[in-house]
Write a sequence for this structure.
């Protein structure tokens, strides 16, 4: 019975869960899959509890995972958004329960054959969908880097599809080698070749690197430890496997060159030599700013799930997110992510968890040198680590499940599985198992609430686009913000209702919504700008100035706040400040021109007061009286990237010297030295 339940679990995890997808959600994958996964883990736990299959599972890796969970809970007191912390902790808790359950199954029975077979079928299914999507792209007649993003199978994007393909390679490869049935041999070889073909076509450099490094390291250890067997027994097989791999790669590259230029492949490889190429530079900038965040929060971190909230406060000028249209959700490095959210202790538990896994797998390899499965587990673990350095596999369900299966196999084969029983978690304790069941039930409820909330949020966004503002407000009011207060791109849901109220000219209601949104995410550019605009409409210019400035501290190039702040300063007669901001505004139109022309006479008056040479002040007065002349000097100062004051003096001295001939060359040099070298 237990083996049957284990088999059903593997089928659900790979042949059902990854295909759970809802277009009613903003993120069509993550919320619904977490909800279903929590149901699967509850069913597993209930079965194991009532069948009394729980035993004293003790391994240092399990204690490290538990320690990481506990630290995540303790450090969440520092989180700005506790809801986001809770869902991150709950997700990790579900992974923890799944690992324990799978470890119990794997410890009692050999699941290698069924697992690798099911993963092979899963791999075939996602490849089939990916190839269909490729066919749809090729029907257009072209294929390039941009269009490769359309090939994502059942995943949220192309990169995740490629990551899962990489992580399935060791399972498919093992089943190909071990199966004795010819039909399955042909099938798995086809799947394996198609897998590598798609990895090349998807142009995901991190996956390329993972495939290359994992293959080299695994082959190195296998060759070193089994060189005699390779030479004597497996020479022909090894040559066949390596030749098949090389032919697949060469053929895939050739096919790619026929549907696109090989220059694309060369550019994708270029990042190894030049970190300024493509998204690599952006990742480095994200890591650099994340390290600043870590430096200020190295003990407790910013709380689980709160990197995306706090990161903008360290400045996003120069990043793609500087306009507020795009918001980075993670640093594209799981280790930096963990360190920034859970502090040094959480990071140590997380890092040591993987370190222990490597120690365990190497012990297994050395004790069973000819067991191919351990080498494939090593391949998978290295692949996951490399992906973790450049992406965010810990966030996604499919990648995490593959990791859990890998870890369960490693630990089930470990000699140290039952050591340290005195102080490690004793999972045979009925109290602990009952507690896990209660928490799991609550996670199901919590994740269900989030699924429903996200449906309402997506509806609200659609109504906002259609300018059905009453409907937008109605949808947001249906959401309990304890369970869900920001959408998958970190926009507070109250921002949508705030925008709806603002469009209906209900400023007070809009102000209340934006204020609530600011509590959920105090560093959201557009919400800060809209909050300031509400205060502006209420003529509370002091508060408007405060929030516009907060937005500009995050992104000094945020054009909406630059323009709005210049208007605030204009109305409060701070002309110098008004001109300072409007001169940074990139769009040129009648509104900006009027602000410039209203501010400049006051600036020129201030220059006249501090200029003792009347011959210059007379020219200043003439410029002030001529709007076009004044505006031309403004445009020249922007073009020459110098201050308006300096450009004004340059033009005035030029007029006196070269146009009106009121001063000679030496006098012009003297005025330049007097006013322009200050």
């Amino acid at each position: 019975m237990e083996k049957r339940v284990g088999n059903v679990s593997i089928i659900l995890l790979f042949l059902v869960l990854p295909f759970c997808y809802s277009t009613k959600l903003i993120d069509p994958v993550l919320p619904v899959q977490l909800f279903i996964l929590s149901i699967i883990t509850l069913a597993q736990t209930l079965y194991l509890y009532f069948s009394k299959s729980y035993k004293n599972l003790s391994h240092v890796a399990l204690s490290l995972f538990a320690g990481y969970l506990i630290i995540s809970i303790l450090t969440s007191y520092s989180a700005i958004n506790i809801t986001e912390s809770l869902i991150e902790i709950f997700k990790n808790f579900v992974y923890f329960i799944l690992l324990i359950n799978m470890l119990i199954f794997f410890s009692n029975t050999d699941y290698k054959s069924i697992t690798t077979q099911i993963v092979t079928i899963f791999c075939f299914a996602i490849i089939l969908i990916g190839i269909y999507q490729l066919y749809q792209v090729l029907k257009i007649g072209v294929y390039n880097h941009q269009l490769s993003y359309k090939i994502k199978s059942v995943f949220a994007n192309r990169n995740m599809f490629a990551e899962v393909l990489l992580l399935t390679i060791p399972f498919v490869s093992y089943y190909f080698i071990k199966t004795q049935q010819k039909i399955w041999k042909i099938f798995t070889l086809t799947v394996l070749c198609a897998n590598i073909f798609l990895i090349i076509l998807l142009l995901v450099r991190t996956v390329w690197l993972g495939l290359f490094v994992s293959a080299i390291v695994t082959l190195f250890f296998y060759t070193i430890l089994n060189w005699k067997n390779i030479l004597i027994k497996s020479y022909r097989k090894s040559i066949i496997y390596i030749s098949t791999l090389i032919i697949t790669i060469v053929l895939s590259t050739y096919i790619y060159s026929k549907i696109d230029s090989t220059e694309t492949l060369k550019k994708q490889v270029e990042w190894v030599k030049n970190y300024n190429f493509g998204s690599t530079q952006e990742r480095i900038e994200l890591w650099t700013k994340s390290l600043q965040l870590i430096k200020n929060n190295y003990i407790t971190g910013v709380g689980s799930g709160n990197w995306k909230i706090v990161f903008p406060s360290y400045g996003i000028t120069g990043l793609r997110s500087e306009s507020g249209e795009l918001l980075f959700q993670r640093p594209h490095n799981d280790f930096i992510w963990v360190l920034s959210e859970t502090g040094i202790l959480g990071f140590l538990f997380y890092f040591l968890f993987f370190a222990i896994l490597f120690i365990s797998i190497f012990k297994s390899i050395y004790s069973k040198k000819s067991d191919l499965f351990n080498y494939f587990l090593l391949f998978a673990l290295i692949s996951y680590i490399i992906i973790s350095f450049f992406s965010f596999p810990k966030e996604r369900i499919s990648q995490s499940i593959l990791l859990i299966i890998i870890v369960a196999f490693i630990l089930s084969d470990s000699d140290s599985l039952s050591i340290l029983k005195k102080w490690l978690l004793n999972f045979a304790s009925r109290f602990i198992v009952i507690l896990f069941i209660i928490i799991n039930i609550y996670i199901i409820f919590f994740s269900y609430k989030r699924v429903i909330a996200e449906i309402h949020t997506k509806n609200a966004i659609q109504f906002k686009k259609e300018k059905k503002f009453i409907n937008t407000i109605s949808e947001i009011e249906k959401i309990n913000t304890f369970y869900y207060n920001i959408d998958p791109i970190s926009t507070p849901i109250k921002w949508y209702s705030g925008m709806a109220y603002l469009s209906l000219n209900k400023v007070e209601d809009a102000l209340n919504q934006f204020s609530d949104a600011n509590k959920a995410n105090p560093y959201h550019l557009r919400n800060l700008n809209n909050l300031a605009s509400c205060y502006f409409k209420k003529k509370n210019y002091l508060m408007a100035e405060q929030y516009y400035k907060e937005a500009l501290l995050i992104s000094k190039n945020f054009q909406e706040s630059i323009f709005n702040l210049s208007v605030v300063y204009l109305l409060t007669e701070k002309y110098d400040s008004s001109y300072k901001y409007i001169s940074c505004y990139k769009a040129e139109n009648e509104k900006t021109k009027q602000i410039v022309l209203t501010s400049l006479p006051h600036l020129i008056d201030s220059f006249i007061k501090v200029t003792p040479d009347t011959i210059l002040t007379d020219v200043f007065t003439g410029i002030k009286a001529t709007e076009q002349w004044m505006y031309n000097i403004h445009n020249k100062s922007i073009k020459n990237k110098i201050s308006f004051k300096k450009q004004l003096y340059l033009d005035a001295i030029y007029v006196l010297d070269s146009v009106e001939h009121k001063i000679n060359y030496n006098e012009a040099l003297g005025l330049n030295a007097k006013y322009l070298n200050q």
Remarks:
- The chain has two domains: 1-420, 575-677.
- Residues 575-677 form one domain.
- The radius of gyration is 31 Å.
- Residues 419-425 have pLDDT under 50 and may be disordered.
